[in-house]
Every structure is written in C-alpha cells, then in structure tokens.
Automatic annotation (TrEMBL):
Protein name, UniProt field: Carbonic anhydrase
InterPro entries, per the entry: Carbonic_anhydrase (IPR001765), Carbonic_anhydrase_CS (IPR015892), Carbonic_anhydrase_sf (IPR036874)
Source organism (scientific name): Enteractinococcus helveticum
Cofactor note: Binds 1 zinc ion per subunit.
Keyword line: Lyase, Metal-binding, Zinc
Length: 206
C-alpha cells in the first residue's frame, strides 16, 4: 500500500532520524525479523534518496531508518542517467513516494574530478569522463556565482540536480505540480553527520 505521509511529514521523519544520528541516540528502527517478514509482498517507503555512491554516505544510517522506509538510488556524484530516471518514475508512479531527497556530500570525489577538469582543461579517461561531463554544468553554474571550491560546488551540484530531475522527468514534475511530491537538495557533512538544506521544489518547509 502507498504511504499516507505528506511530503512534509516524510521530511520530518528523516530530519528527526538525522538528529538522532548526529546526537548518537539512534533507534535502528524496522530492522527486526518480524518487520522484515511483513515486507515480503509489498513496500511503501516514505522517501526516495538519490545520493552519491561514496562508501561514507549510507542513506539508511544517516537518517536512522530501516527496511522498507526509503527507496535508495546511488551513482557516483549523484549523476542522472536513464536508469536513475526510470527508478524515480517507478517510485513516483508505482509506489507514490511523497518525497525525493537529492543527497550530496562534502569532499565528493566525482565533483572534485569535475572541478579539476575545469581547472586543468584535462578530462579523465574512459567511463570517468562520462561522470565528469554530467557534473560539468554544475561546475560552470557554481563558477558563474563565484564559487570555485569543491564543497561549494557540491552544494550547487545538489541544487542543480533538484531542478534537473524535475525538468527531465515528467512523472516527477507532475507529482510536484500536484503537491503529491517534493524534491529537496540536501548536503551531508562527513565530519559531524549533519545535513544542510538546499533548493526545494514542492510542499516542504525545512
């Protein structure tokens, strides 16, 4: 069954979970055998978290949630491709997820590679080039605002991805337009575990 949470309620749950994580008072909810068995035939996650593949950034841990709570999509540098868009469409159209979090983090290797490519005019080889090419528009957008450091560029890239998801996916755009879903940019701090809110499209007050 679809979740009955509003976008605001979904965010409040994630925000509370991150607060517990930062404070060291995590609950580790929905990780027992009984809960696992209850999810065998259906799922109703209350958020999509589209984030970076970095090993230091585990969405379920930093928001203190468990099995069935979040629908997680990960690529290096949270780069959008057809598989990501298809996954987002499934989450919106099939399971009515009310919130999409675009999750970046400081000291991101993929964003660092893109920033260095702009600075040196040397592109990485093979498939890393594809990643950098997809992040490059965010690097240029950051530079147009006078931002040249990696962490500032990460924040810009996260915000740019919020808008790109809505611009690219008809399913997400319709859900946001109708108030069924919100899309939020969030940047995670590797040092203290906190999150910083960026751009928001849809009915959420951070």
């Amino acid at each position: 069954m679809p979740t009955t949470l509003t976008p605001q309620q979904a965010w409040e749950q994630l925000k509370a979970g991150n607060r517990r994580f930062v404070d060291g008072t995590v609950d580790h909810p929905h990780q027992d055998a009984g809960w696992r068995a209850s999810l065998e035939n259906s799922q109703s996650p209350h958020a999509v978290i589209f984030g970076c593949s970095d090993s230091r950034l585990a969405a379920e841990i930093i928001f203190d949630v468990g099995l069935g709570d979040v629908f997680v999509i990960r690529t290096a540098g949270q780069v959008i491709d057809d598989a990501v868009l298809g996954s987002l469409q499934f989450a919106i159209e099939e399971i009515d997820v009310p919130l999409i979090i675009i999750l970046g983090h400081d000291n991101c290797g993929a964003v660092t590679a893109a920033v260095e490519a702009v600075q040196t005019a040397v592109m990485p080889k093979s498939f890393m080039r594809s990643l950098v090419e997809r992040i490059m528009p965010s690097v240029m957008a950051a530079r147009s605002k006078g931002v040249t450091d990696v962490n500032g560029t990460v924040e810009e890239h996260t915000d740019q991805t919020v808008h790109r998801v809505v611009d690219t996916s008809y399913a997400v755009a319709q859900a946001v337009k109708e108030g069924r879903t919100a899309v939020m940019g969030v940047t995670y701090s590797l040092s203290d575990g906190s999150v910083k809110i960026g751009d928001i499209l849809g009915p959420v007050n951070p």
